[in-house]
């Protein structure tokens, strides 16, 4: 075999291997999805969506769970969005390159890798025990905000960094202050990117069960939360609870709840993809 | 050079990026309502000097200057000078056209809006006047609400000039304003510079010596952070007094 034949063979071999690697993830995911859908889709109906939890599988619904998930989604967004974006702007636009800013930067990156259950313990200690707030929605949202804050900060910085230096120069040269430049030029130009990051972070928060279980969110909440100071449950906790029951009917319930949870996260990811696409179409540097 | 008043002056100016000295003891006086060109090879300090004239280097970590820069006799690095006020007086046009990703109208009135001017009538009048001064009005008057990014490169650069004119500066700094443009757009920019020098003091950095010859009244040759020679453009190009200048303008290096 000549060298060039060998090279072509290697090339071909890698292509096949690459296709295999690409599909292995997709196939596993597809099998999982199909299994869940077959198991659960028949269970989803109006009653399932609007019923309170129950000891009897056939009467149990996920009203409190998805209402709790939506509450958590909105509250976490309200908390993490301004904090994360402000921190990102500060680090990228204002902070001078010093040892301190390097230290902050490395640690924010590290925080993004801390397991979520640790954030749950932090939330338990800080908000539930120290601040005596109890295992309420606000505490859940605060805890999840801490969890996604590093991601929001990092994506905000990436989006801001993508705005060319020349745009800032143009604004400064016309007499704009730093804040005017950030507010009028940098933020509008990077907003799509920032929003994309925030939404992806939120879709991660929505899927979390562990930190919320640690702070004391309950599986059985017989009412829909009316204020941020009410106790709550969320879809992942409800799913976790149902899958640990022995009865097959509860497993069907869990599968149906998983479909609803997946729809929520797919919807969020879809919005993120749409925003990014629109941003790319609108602004070409 | 003493016939007209000097608008901008540098006295014993040194500039540093950290430990690197980018400008060495620059002394120069630039005439009002005339065009002064800075020429010299890459890295000679001409752009650095241009950017000290409206303090655009302020945000660069480690940048500092010693010496004085006077605008109408006032030290622009004095502690009581506000940078935003200075930049209203000294406008700037960059190498690469950098319109904001907004409408043409929003681009022109941006400088006025950030000063807090909200009156639609004032803004619209300023927009038309500035675009006319920048010889762009006829091309864009029907699409002021269209994105500035849809304009050609040459139009974008004239828009950036209009944007700088809108805040009524007395000095306009241009950092190789035509180097990213085609010959026809370049000619339009040069024509515009001729027109503008009736009312504005213009300082232009250029790599293109023919351009310096065509547009400027005075030329300053920078080399390795030093101002080697500063003279009437005609004199400089016909009988330079320094051999380094001669070598550069005859194309022996650079």
Descriptors for this entry?
heterodimer, A: 285 residues, mainly alpha, MetI-like fold, 11 helices, 0% strand, B: 254 residues, alpha/beta, Rossmann fold, four-stranded antiparallel β-sheet, globular
Describe the structure.
The complex is a heterodimer of chains A (285) and B (254). Chain A is 76% helix and 0% strand. With 285 residues, chain A is mostly helical. Chain A folds into 2 domains: 41 residues; 237 residues, MetI-like fold (Orthogonal Bundle). Chain A is globular, with a radius of gyration of 23 Å. The model of chain A has no long low-confidence stretch (mean pLDDT 90). Chain B is of the alpha/beta class and 254 residues long. In chain B, helix 7 links the parallel strand 7 and strand 8. The model of chain B has no long low-confidence stretch (mean pLDDT 92). Chains A and B meet through helix 7 and helix 8 of A and helix 2 and helix 6 of B.
Describe this structure in a few short sentences:
The complex is a heterodimer of chains A (285) and B (254). Chain A has 285 residues and is mainly α.
Secondary-structure blueprint:
The complex is a heterodimer of chains A (285) and B (254).
Chain A: H1 3-40, H2 46-50, H3 63-94, H4 99-111, H5 116-130, H6 137-161, H7 165-173, H8 178-206, H9 210-215, H10 235-243, H11 248-282
Chain B: E1 6-17, E2 20-31, E3 35-39, H1 46-52, E4 63-71, E5 74-75, H2 83-89, E6 90-93, H3 104-113, H4 120-133, H5 137-140, H6 153-166, E7 171-175, H7 183-196, E8 201-205, H8 209-215, E9 218-223, E10 226-232, H9 233-238, H10 243-249
Parallel strand pairs in B: 3-8, 3-9, 6-7, 7-8
Antiparallel strand pairs in B: 1-2, 1-4, 4-5, 9-10
Helix pairs in contact in B: 3-4, 3-6, 4-6, 6-7
């Amino acid at each position: 075999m000549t060298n060039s034949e060998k090279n072509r063979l290697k090339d071909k071999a890698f292509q096949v291997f690459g296709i295999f690697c690409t599909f292995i993830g997709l196939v596993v995911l597809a099998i999982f999805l199909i299994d869940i859908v077959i198991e659960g889709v028949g269970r989803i109906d109006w009653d399932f969506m609007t019923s309170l939890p129950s000891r009897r599988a056939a009467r149990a619904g996920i009203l409190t769970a998805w209402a709790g998930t939506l509450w958590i989604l909105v509250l976490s967004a309200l908390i993490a969005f301004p904090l994360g974006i402000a921190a990102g702007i500060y680090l990228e636009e204002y902070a001078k390159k010093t040892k301190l800013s390097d230290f902050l930067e490395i640690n924010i990156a590290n925080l993004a890798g801390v397991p979520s259950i640790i954030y749950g313990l932090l939330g338990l200690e800080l908000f539930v025990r120290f601040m005596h707030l109890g295992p309420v929605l606000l505490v859940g949202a605060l805890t999840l905000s801490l969890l996604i804050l590093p991601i929001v900060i990092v994506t905000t910085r990436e989006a801001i960094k993508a705005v060319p230096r020349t745009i800032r120069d143009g604004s400064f040269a016309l007499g704009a202050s730093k804040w005017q430049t950030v507010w009028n030029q940098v933020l509008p130009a990077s907003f799509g990117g920032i929003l994309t990051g925030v939404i992806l972070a939120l879709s991660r928060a929505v899927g979390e069960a562990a930190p919320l279980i640690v702070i004391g969110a309950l599986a059985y909440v017989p009412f829909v939360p009316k204020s941020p100071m009410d106790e709550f449950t969320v879809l992942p906790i409800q799913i976790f609870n149902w899958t640990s029951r022995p009865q097959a009917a509860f497993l069907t319930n869990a599968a149906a709840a998983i479909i609803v949870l997946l729809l929520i996260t797919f919807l969020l990811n879809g919005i993120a993809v749409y925003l990014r696409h629109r941003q790319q179409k609108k602004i070409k540097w | 050079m003493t016939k007209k008043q000097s608008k901008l002056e540098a006295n014993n100016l040194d500039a540093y990026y950290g430990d690197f000295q980018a400008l060495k003891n620059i002394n120069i006086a630039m005439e009002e309502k005339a065009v002064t060109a800075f020429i010299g090879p890459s890295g000679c300090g001409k752009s650095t000097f241009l950017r000290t004239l409206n303090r655009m280097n302020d945000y660069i970590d480690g940048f500092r200057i010693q010496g004085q820069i006077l605008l109408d006799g006032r030290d622009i690095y004095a502690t009581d000078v506000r940078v935003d006020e200075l930049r209203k007086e000294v406008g700037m046009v960059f190498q690469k056209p950098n319109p904001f990703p907004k409408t043409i109208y929003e681009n022109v009135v941006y400088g006025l809006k950030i000063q807090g001017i909200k009156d639609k009538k004032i803004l619209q009048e300023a927009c038309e006047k500035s675009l006319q001064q920048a010889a762009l009005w006829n091309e864009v008057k029907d699409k002021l609400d269209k994105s500035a990014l849809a304009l050609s490169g040459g139009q974008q650069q004239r828009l950036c000039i209009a944007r700088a004119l809108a805040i009524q500066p007395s000095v306009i700094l241009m950092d190789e304003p035509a180097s990213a443009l085609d010959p026809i757009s370049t000619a339009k920019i040069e024509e515009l510079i001729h027109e503008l020098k009736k009312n504005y003091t213009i300082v232009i950095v250029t790599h293109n010596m023919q351009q310096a010859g065509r547009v400027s009244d005075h030329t300053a040759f920078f080399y390795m952070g030093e101002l080697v020679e500063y003279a009437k453009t005609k004199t400089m190009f016909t009988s330079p007094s320094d051999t380094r200048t001669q070598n550069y303008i005859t194309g022996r290096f650079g």
